[in-house]
Amino acid sequence: MHRELFEELGAKAVGASQVFLVSSPSEAGLRIQHFFVTRLLSLDLAVRTGPEFADPARGAYDPDYFDLRGDALADIGLQPPELKAFILANREALLAEAIRVGPTTGD
Questions:
Q1: Which of 7, 54, 57, 105 has a CA positioned 20 to 30 A from the CA of residue 48?
Q2: pLDDT tens per residue, range 16-41
């Protein structure tokens, strides 16, 4: 997870807590997606790496920012849909978990 955060967002984070899992059939068998809450320490889009960032023909990879406590998430096409429903139903607990896994716990 930490490697992916750095590669995709140039981000560094501390702690991690798996909060959600989605599985679905795929051509290769079973597709499993793990979702975590972590405490973001820094983000630098200029240091992202990977082939998608080297080829402008692949489009832009700009993150969307929104306040989890507001109504903006309801209008975002977050995938998979089960994740969006989970976040909307559990946003206060997720925010509390982000604080718990943060640097004050030593995690």
A1: 105
A2: 999 999 999 999 999 999 999 999 99
